[in-house]
Q: What sequence folds into this?
């Protein structure tokens, strides 16, 4: 950590997008299946510890569990089990030194807890829109629009989140659907017998309704698991919707974006209400995060870029999400200072904006 | 500047694609709205000085106006106003040390002047095709093809330029449209009452007619303002049109290209008449230009890559366009020399080709 | 070569995808037309020696022919001719130090020889599926499915290869076509009089039939010559087919991938049967291969990445394919070691997996 610029080492971080922490002990298969976006370990492809992220777990998390750096994966997992999930989660999530978490509780299996449980820091809710739709649609298609609005009116969440990328892709018609269209879509959905919200009309309706209420909307973009099709998650596909929603003046925050992070930066530059991050990618690429973050920061205004871990299930991912981000941000700023592209006060301002000030402004925190 | 290789520091530069310089004094909002591709400053996103480009203005342009490097933005703008636009424009455009400008006069608000006014260097015209169409279509649909041809026959321009990317996207039918199709399209356009050329048949017609007359055609690709949709500006969408126009043997020059600059480089490698640049991106990413330029130079033959600033309105952008390009090119060549990938004579040849020889050959200058 | 880590300098390499070596002497035009993916030298664009690859030929291959590094192109070509193709091929292919070649014999003009002829190493066959279809379709549409199956049943090849990217693009319907559909497609093909397999139904049929027999299928993706359209060669377009074929548990290997190598890495992470390489790009970008390889290795598990040259015709490309790969891999590993991202044993394991172990597992070699 000694390579960190002081203004990054001491930087307050608001994690504006993450998930819950799994509180149960894991065997090797269980651990690996949560490590990356792969659903399970491939017998054809060796172990998922053979990856940038797997190396980072052994390199950085091992020492926090009193192992030498880069102890073998089996030793790491044995030590993890002997300490127990509660102790490991407390140690690793605390070590992330994150001041506040915005947590998407949309996918929340048994045994999950919010990360703030382990740190005593503050936790705020992000409402997953598709989950909301799935919760209220059983009441019937005709009342579906009203039920969605009621839920949004009374939510305590600071933001909403759309996973349209996973369900219908991002090539959304920008028009606000009429209630009649929404009811018809809910009708089709109920008739299909599926519990899963996977209808473009409903996805658009949810985004518009959230923005109407001044709720910033986070949108999954790019990198994720095998349920998505990457070229349908190009943020550029959202352009018409971004044009249509710009007059509302409510933030739309593009999450992850890898490998479309340059395209996302362009959108954040030209649309006043668009913000971006490279969460998930940062720890996924681990020791290579400096290049990815530098690319992401090419054209995006520094007032439009946010920090997130997108950590899910494994406490390691909170810690590594924060660590790889801090190292990459420090490298970015150090490189600029070294060639006198900006002064120390500029570096400090950029760090502050990205670490927490942008999140505070976007989500109107405190 | 002392890090520049001598062969780059003394390099003659032909800016094969830029715009006019604004001759009026600007307040902060006016300056920022011309600084990046954002239409205006976002109240949600701090200042556009919080960007790589904003830092570069303070770092590099400030000292030319007798300020210390990285003086605050407000000081910079106050100094700029106290000197007056004429003096600032002369100072900054001259400092770019560009030997010749090819200027697109298609967007030329009141108060614009050609950059050569400030330097005494030579200026040649690039004819914006959509603007030509907009100028001649009021004469009537039936005479539209003939009027376009007459104008192209008598143009003093050294190249034509298409902004089809902005108007209809780059996924153009490659076929040369018949006059009957063009007249029908002009008819529809006139009936629409719009003054704006936004018809794919007409875009194709304009490109074909310019190439028929041996006029190299510059095509806007990739990065630009919020009027375009980035995935519709992927240069690969032009592939069929490039195949169809290859037999004419007239250059097609893909402009900007970011973030599709690798795809553009591929097209320049495999199509004999295709050339590329990374104008606009170079100063937009500012101190990070070395990586973008290096990527752009991965597979493109060095005989197919050109320098441009794509500067518009602000004199800062001519200076920074040339400065960031020179630094990035020098970094590229120095890195190659350092690992003995090529010899000094090779570096000098690459610099010469990219700086001006390719432009001279493509546009038959002198 | 002295910058290579010992574990890379001594690394066994299995080239899992390459072509034949041309045994005839070449003039400058003949040499240049085989050097890059350009079909011929452009009079508009100087020489193809003005490229990263052209410089690498002069830098690295010259000294193996007893010329000083970076001797002029004409000297290099004169020396090449005076030694004769047989001697040059033996020298350069041997210098690649490749232990085993998997050779696609689908495009095999007169004068071609397998690379192992020059080295005494082992050579295995990859069956080009479109070539197989072209060979058997003249027997008639009704027997086409059976003839394809017979050929696949009796092939001695260790893998099949699809060039659907070139013929129909990668946006393939994932469904296994029925025999009736295949016969109808073969009928249409025969009626067209074309000798060329360019039908999506047949492409899909060939891939499914190969996988059914446990034959790993290599798929051309991304970078290639002017016959392809790059955006139709995005590996993400294969997602539905990858989902559909996953249950078979037979490897699908995405070749080249540039500039979509990050997308390919994502697919290799989330689909258990998907593997990737950056063959062709490695020597095409030459001294810049380190960045491309590092990007390709961001999210791909190290158990899913393979080495290939994709060398075709020129012996230089085998040597440079191996050399640029070794240097780039060594740079990747050295950078990680330098910042203690992993230990030497990890670096050695990653090198071994990528150099030959993954190929051995995927193709069940030995």
A:
């Amino acid at each position: 950590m000694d390579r960190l610029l002081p203004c990054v080492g001491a930087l307050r971080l608001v994690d504006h997008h993450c998930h819950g922490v799994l509180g149960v002990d894991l065997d090797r298969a269980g651990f690996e299946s949560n490590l990356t976006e792969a659903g399970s370990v491939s017998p054809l492809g060796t172990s998922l510890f053979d990856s940038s992220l797997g190396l980072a777990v052994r390199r950085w998390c091992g020492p926090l569990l009193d192992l030498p750096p880069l102890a073998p994966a089996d030793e790491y997992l044995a030590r993890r089990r002997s300490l127990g999930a509660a102790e490991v989660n407390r140690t690793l999530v605390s070590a992330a030194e994150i001041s506040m978490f915005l947590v998407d509780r949309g996918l929340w299996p048994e045994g999950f807890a919010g990360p703030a449980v382990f740190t005593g820091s503050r936790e705020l809710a992000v409402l997953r829109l598709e989950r909301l739709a799935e919760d209220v649609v059983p009441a019937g298609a005709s009342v579906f629009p009203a039920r969605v609005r009621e839920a949004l009116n009374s939510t305590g969440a600071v933001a909403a989140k759309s996973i349209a990328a996973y369900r219908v892709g991002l090539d959304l018609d920008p028009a606000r659907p009429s209630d009649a269209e929404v009811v018809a879509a809910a009708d089709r959905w109920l008739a299909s017998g599926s519990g899963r919200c996977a209808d473009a009309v409903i996805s658009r309706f949810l985004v518009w309704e959230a923005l109407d209420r001044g709720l910033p909307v986070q949108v999954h973009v790019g990198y994720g698991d095998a349920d998505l099709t990457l070229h349908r998650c190009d943020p550029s596909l959202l352009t018409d919707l971004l044009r249509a929603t710009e007059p509302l003046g409510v933030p739309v925050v593009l999450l992850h974006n890898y490998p479309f992070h340059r395209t996302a930066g362009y959108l954040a530059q030209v649309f006043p209400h668009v913000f971006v991050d490279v969460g998930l990618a940062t720890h996924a690429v681990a020791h290579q995060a400096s290049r990815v973050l530098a690319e992401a920061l090419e054209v995006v205004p520094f007032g439009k870029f946010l920090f997130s871990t997108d950590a899910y299930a494994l406490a390691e991912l909170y810690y590594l999400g924060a660590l790889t981000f801090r190292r990459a941000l420090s490298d970015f700023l150090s490189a600029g200072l070294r060639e006198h592209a900006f002064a120390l006060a500029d570096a400090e301002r950029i760090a502050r904006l990205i670490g927490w000030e942008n999140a505070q402004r976007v989500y109107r925190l405190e």
About this structure: The interface with chain B takes residues 36-48, 50-52, 54-56, 58-59, 69-70, 223, 225-226, 229-231, 258-259, 281, 284-288, 291-292 of chain C (CB under 8 Å). Residues 6-20+100-362 of chain C form a domain with the TIM Barrel fold (CATH 3.20.20.140). The first helix of chain C runs from residue 6 to 9.
